[in-house]
Fold each of these.
Amino acid sequence: MELGKSLSATVLLILCMTSSANGGNILVWYTEASHWINMKPVLETLIDRGHQVTVLTPSVSLFMKTNEPSRFRYEPFNVSFSLETIEAFMEEFLQFSIYEMNQMSYLQIYIRFMDMMKTNVQVSLKYLDGVMKSDTTMKKLKEGNYDLLLADPIYPGSDLTAEILGIPLIFSLRFSIANNWERLCGQLPAPPSFVPAAMSKLTDKMNFSERVWNFVFYILQDIVLDNVFWKELDKYYSEVKGTPTSACEMMSTADIWLMRTYWDFDFPRPFLPNFKFVGGIHCRPAKPLPEDMEEFVQSSGNDGIVVFTLGSMVKNITTERANMIASALAQIPQKVLWRYRGEKPKTLGANTRISDWIPQNDLKRMYLQA
Ligand SMILES: *[C@@H]1O[C@H](CO)[C@@H](O)[C@H](O)[C@H]1NC(C)=O
Ligand SMILES: *[C@@H]1O[C@H](CO)[C@@H](O)[C@H](O)[C@H]1NC(C)=O
Ligand SMILES: *[C@@H]1O[C@H](CO)[C@@H](O)[C@H](O)[C@H]1NC(C)=O
C-alpha cells in the first residue's frame, strides 16, 4: 500500500516535470461576465507555468474582447445574432432581479424565471451552433492538437466538444441551481436530510418540516430544469451525435470539477475525490491602496469596512433605489466603499464613499488585519 502510494507519487512527479518542461496545450471554452473575469487570472497562471492557452471566443460577447492585448491566443468563431440581442436579454434579467421580483408573487416569479431560462437556453444553443455547425471552426479545433479542455459549464457543449476532440475535460463551477449538475451529472451525494439545496435559504440545521421542504425543493428544481434545460440539450446533443444522448451523462464525463468555493464557506456535505475546492483562485497578493483610500479605510478603526458592489453586470440603478441604498449604508458604524456609477445620491452618508471601481483584491488586506 505504502509502496504503491510512493510509487504513484513518483510517477505523478515525473509526469508533472515532463509536462512543465513541454507545456500543455489547453483549450478554454467561451464564457461571459464574472465567469470570464474569474477565468482570466487562472489562464495567466497557466501561461506562467509554461502552458499554451487558446480561448474559444464568440464574435459577439459583452466581456470577451479579442482585440484586448493578452498572452493567450483567441480562437474566434461566428455567431448568428447581434450584441444588442445579448444586451437586451441581460438588461431584462437585471431589471427582473433587482426591481420586478420584489413586487411579484412566487408563481409570477416562477413563470417569468422559466421564460427567461428558456430564452437563455436558446441563446446558449445558438452560441454552440457557432462551434458545432461551423466546419471551419471544428476543423481548426481538431487541428489544434489540444491536450485538454477547460470550461465553465454555464455555456453548454464543452463536454460534447471534448468528446469529439477526444481530450479530457475540466470544469470550473461555482454552483448550479439546487446543485442539479453536481448531483445528477457529477454524482455528488446530497442527502436532503442535512444538505440544504442551494438557493433554498435553508441551513444544515433543519427540523422535520424543513427537511421535507428541502426534499421537495430538490425535486421541484429537478423537474423545472428537466423541462427547460435538459430536454432541449438532449435534443441538440442527440442530433449532433446521431444517437439518443443524455446531455447530463455527457456532463458526467468531466474528469475534474474545480469548485469555486471552499469547505468552510458552505455547509458541510459529502464530496468526491474529483471535486476540488479552488475558491479564491483568482485572488492576487494585495498591492498598496491609493493614499486617500488607505486613509479612509484606516479611519474606520476597529469597526472595519464594508465593500458594497452589485457585481460586474449592474451598471446603473434608479435614483430612487440609489438613495434607498445610500440611506441604509449611512446607518452602519463601518466605513463603506461602494462601487457605483451615476450621480451622487442625496442621502449618501459621511461614512460612505462611492467610486467607479474599487480595488477589491487589494482591500482584502483589511480582512486579514481585522
Ligand atoms: C466569420 O465570418 C467572417 C465574415 O463573414 C469570415 O470572414 C470568417 O472567416 C468567419 N470565421 C469563421 C471562424 O468561420
Ligand atoms: C421548523 O422550523 C421552522 C422555522 O424555524 C418553523 O417555522 C416551524 O414551525 C418548525 N416546525 C416544526 C415541526 O417544529
Ligand atoms: C440603465 O441604462 C440603460 C442604457 O443607458 C437604460 O436602457 C436603462 O433603462 C437604465 N436602467 C435604469 C434602471 O436606469
Note: Residues 208-241 form the longest helix (34 residues).
Amino acid sequence: MHCEEVLAERIAREAGTPAFVYSAAVIRDRYRKLDAALAGVPHRIHYSLKANSNRGILTLLRELGSGVDVVSGGELFRALHAGFGAQDIIFGGVGKTAKELSEALQAGIKMINVESEAELLLLDRIAGEQGVQAPVGLRINPEVAVATRHEYIATGAKGHKFGIPYEEAAAVIATAVSLRHVAVVGLDMHVGSQLQSFEPYRHGIERLASLASQARALGAPLKYVDIGGGLPVAYGDGDADPDLEAWQRVVIPAVREIGAELLVEPGRFFAAASGVLLARVLYRKKSGGKDYVICDAGMTELLRPSHYDAYHFIETAGDRAGRARVDVVGPVCESGDFLALDREMEDAQPGDLLVIHTAGAYGYVMSSTYNSRARAAEVMVDGHRFAVVTAREHYEDLVRLEHEDPDWRDA
Ligand SMILES: *Cc1c(COP(=O)(O)O)cnc(C)c1O
C-alpha cells in the first residue's frame, strides 16, 4: 500500500505509529475543483482551520490561494503564524471572548462573523476603544431543515446555539447598522457538516438574499455573502462526494442575484479524504463471543467513531487473505474506545499495519492525551517525498506545563 508514491510501511517505520499521513495531491486537486466550480462569481475560499490546522496543510492551502476561517484566538494565532495575511482571515464562533475580539481587531482581519446581539454590542465597544471600525458579518441561523449523518453536525436548524435566530435577524441588522464602530460588510450562515442534500444551501441563501436587501436599504456596505462549509465527503458507507456541478447550479445563480462576493468555508471537503491514520496491530483476543483487533490507536487519536458514530474504512497495508468479523479497538481504558464495531474486514494479525481511511479532518485536531498518551505524529506526502510536519509528542510534553513547586497564595 502506497501513500502517493511512498510505501505506507516505510512511513510507519520512520515516523512510528500511530501517525496521520496526508496527501498534498488530494488537497491540491480538491482545491482546484472547488475553485473552478465557483468561477462564475467573484469568490474566495476560506479553509476552515478547525478540520485540520497543522502548518503543513496550512502552508499548502495558502500557496494555492486559500484564505482561512478561524473559530478561536488560538486558530487566529496559528493562521498568522502560518503566514496568512490579516485580509485572508475571517473569524467565526458562538462564544468569542473580549480578548479574542480584541486580538482580531488588532490584527485587522477581513471579517468577524458575529453570532448574537450581545456579541455585536461588545465588539462595537471594543472597536470604539481601539478607534477602529469592526468589519462585521452577521451569522444568521436560516433555520432550514438539515439532514446530516449525526445530530452533532447539524448547526442551522431552529433552536441550535449557532447564529442569530432568523426571526431576530432584521432587528439585529438594524441595530448593527446604527452602531458607530461596526460596519456590516457581510451576511453569513453555516448550516451543518457532511450535508447530504443541497436544499439547505438553497433555502439558506434565499433567506440571506432577502436580508441582504434589507441591510442595503438601511445603508449597510455589504460586500460578502458567506455560505459556510458543510460539503460532504465519501467515507465509504454510502455517502458520496458532492456533485459540485449540482452544488454550483444551486449556489451561483442565487449568489449572483445578491451581487456580493461569495465566501465559502470548507473544512472536511479538503482535509478528510487527504488523510489516513496508520496504526499497528498489537494483539488479537476473543471475549464473550467477540473477536477483537487491538491496535495502538484509538479514541485519543480518532474520536469520530465513538463521538459521532462515524464510519471509517479500515484495511491492512499488506495482503491478508482471510476475513474476520471484528471490533477494532485501541488501548484506552474506556469501553467507548473503538475505531470500528462488528466490522467484516481482513483478518489482521499482530504486527500488521492498519490503514484507517478518510481520517484527515476532525482527526488529529480532536485528539487528546487521555490516559497520558502522547499525541501522534503528522506526516505530509507529496509525490515521491514525505516529511513529518508535526513531531510525535514526548512524555516530557505531558508534564511540561505542570508546576513542581506551585505558587500558593493566601486568600
Ligand atoms: C466547522 C465549520 C466549518 C467547516 O465545516 P465542514 O463541514 O468541515 O466544511 C465552516 N464554518 C464554520 C463556521 C464552522 O464552524
Note: Residues 48, 50-51, 69, 71, 92, 190, 193, 228-231, 265-269 surround pyridoxal-5'-phosphate (CB under 6 Å).
